[in-house]
Amino acid sequence: EAQVTQNPRYLITVTGKKLTVTCSQNMNHEYMSWYRQDPGLGLRQIYYSMNVEVTDKGDVPEGYKVSRKEKRNFPLILESPSPNQTSLYFCASSLSQGTGELFFGEGSRLTVL
Amino acid sequence: GENVEQHPSTLSVQEGDSAVIKCTYSDSASNYFPWYKQELGKGPQLIIDIRSNVGEKKDQRIAVTLNKTAKHFSLHITETQPEDSAVYFCAASEHNDMRFGAGTRLTVKP
Q1: Cis (ω within 30 of 0) for the bond into A83?
Q2: Are the C-beta atoms of A108 and A22 separated by less than 8 Å?
Q3: Cα separation, A104 vs A106, whole angstroms
Q4: I want to staple B58 with a disulfide (CB 3.0 to 4.6 A). Which of A26, A97, B63, B108 is the partner?
């Protein structure tokens, strides 16, 4: 089954404690992206990757890092989480950027205390 | 960059009625306009999309219209059913830059 898998689905952590949200897709997609969803703000792009070893900032990259060492994986790293990073995070993948269907994971709800 | 505005933010309709959600975009170069449906506890899923060379597209009870001159596009759902209740996002994309609207929470009352 074609899917994007994120882990963990739910996480409560404390300010400053590094965490990683993993994302994996099994569709051989070149393009992967991270979004955060906040009430009234829709989906805002954090980082994206056009292919292995190619990453770029989206609209809200501050406080986040990503890596793309393999085509299927695109982890999101919060080196020192802060309460304003409390949000619902989605990973997505697509055959190509911008003009094709995005396949989203089920989301990871992060709370930073 | 692109800016997408979506209205209304919430919409409540009676089962069987129609629902319309409208979006406007700012970048005249945008050429791809997808609509995503997000059910509770799930990620958004594409339900219909339209490209700039087409004015309207239908798929059973859902349709999307595009007015490039006015830079707006709309989602129309006819004969709404309770399972249509969800958050709907519009988006506009110009090659490498896709932006989403803020979302519309649709509630269909039985």
Answers
A1: no
A2: no
A3: 7
A4: B63
Amino acid identity of B75?
L
CA B87-B54-B77 angle, to 5 degrees, is: 30
| Close Cβ partners of A44 (under 8 Å, ≥ 6 residues apart) | A35, A36, A37, A38, A58, A59, A60, B100
Q: Encode pLDDT of A37-93 as tens digits.
A: 999 899 999 999 999 999 999 999 999 999 999 999 999 999 999 999 999 999 999
CB B49 within 8 A of CB B63: no
Residues of A in contact with B93 (CB under 8 A): 98-99
- For A43, the closest chain B residue by CA position comes to B100
